[in-house]
Design a protein that fits this description.
With about 290 residues, the chain is α+β, with helices and mostly antiparallel strands. Helices cover about 25% and strands about 25% of the residues. It has two domains: about 120 residues, 2-Layer Sandwich (Alpha-Beta Plaits), CATH 3.30.70; about 140 residues, no CATH class. The structure holds zinc ion. Zinc ion (ZN) binds next to loops.
């Protein structure tokens, strides 16, 4: 069977920078204190739909409740308090075709990072529902777009499910991963990330070839490294937001955990998946400890 979804003409990336101290001029930070190559793009796009900045008092901000998206425990806990108490918001928005978000979203996030660095602020990405942390191996935003670079946030859901947030930025339905057959939460999370990475990579390739396509049709089954998954529309589609539920079909239960491949990036931190139980599967747990 196949699944068809509408691809929006445009989507908007939003980054909320929660600050107490307002810079003397936003223009002194963006683009001039941004990292390369995003500085050059920001200089070109600033003031257009591709990069807009607005500042207002937090109590008047449309994102005044943005802290409620964040986990109350783990590494996001202190950030959540800082965001809740912040006096001002600088909102960075980037509107573009989904295919172009691979260019404009990193530049917008680089601008938000630069503003947060200048004002000792915290960046929140409402599309992923997560704090934008600095990565450990680079000073700011990576120069090149990578699908696994925190463009999707994960939250635990009912009955062992894990819900992804952020695929809509690229004109895709969001996904909810059903609990893995083994019942191990970490296996569910690992499967969710594998599926999201595969779906997004294929979707971006489709958009490169068909940038004006109003719809896209995909197969309702996926096979990744010997594991099979089936995709279904979540009941209620297409409102409020199109969401696909993903059900893992195999491999057989006695080998399922051993066959979960090593993720290409560290698994979500406890803050992102704020109240997951301890991992049970030996292979993925080793990966998480290594992260
Ligand atoms: Zn397992």
């Amino acid at each position: 069977m196949q699944l068809t979804f509408a691809v929006p003409r445009q989507t908007t990336s939003i980054f909320v920078v929660a600050i107490d101290r307002v810079p003397s001029g936003l223009g002194s930070v963006v683009p001039w204190r941004m990292c390369r190559p995003h500085r050059r793009c920001a200089a070109e796009w600033l003031g257009s739909d591709r990069l807009r900045l607005s500042r207002r008092r937090a109590k008047d901000s449309p994102w005044r409740q943005v802290h409620a998206m964040l986990g109350a425990a783990g590494e996001e806990g202190p950030e959540r308090d800082r965001v809740r108490r912040a006096a001002h918001h600088i909102v960075v928005t980037a509107t573009a075709a989904p295919a172009d978000q691979v260019d404009v979203a990193p530049t917008a996030r680089a601008a938000a990072r630069a503003l947060a660095t200048e004002c000792d602020g915290v960046v929140v990405d409402p599309l992923t529902g997560a704090v934008v942390f600095h990565c450990t191996d680079c000073a700011g935003e990576r120069p090149d777009f990578t699908v696994t670079d925190d463009w999707i946030g994960w939250r635990p859901g009912p009955q062992g499910t894990v819900a992804g947030r952020g695929l809509r930025r690229f004109g895709m339905p969001e996904i909810v991963m059903a609990a893995a057959a083994c019942g191990h939460t970490l296996c569910t999370v690992t499967g969710a990330r594998l599926v999201a990475d595969r779906l997004l990579t294929a979707h971006l390739a489709f958009l490169r070839d068909h940038p004006l396509a109003p719809t896209r049709t995909i197969d309702d089954s996926l096979r990744i490294d010997g594991m099979e998954f089936t995709l279904r529309w979540q009941p209620g589609h297409p409102t409020p937001a199109p969401t696909l539920t993903v059900h893992p079909l195999g491999p057989p239960a006695d080998t399922a955990c051993a066959k979960v491949p090593t993720p290409t990036r560290p698994l979500p931190t406890p803050a992102r998946i704020s109240h997951l139980p301890a991992a049970l599967c030996p292979t993925p747990q080793t990966t998480q400890e290594a992260a």
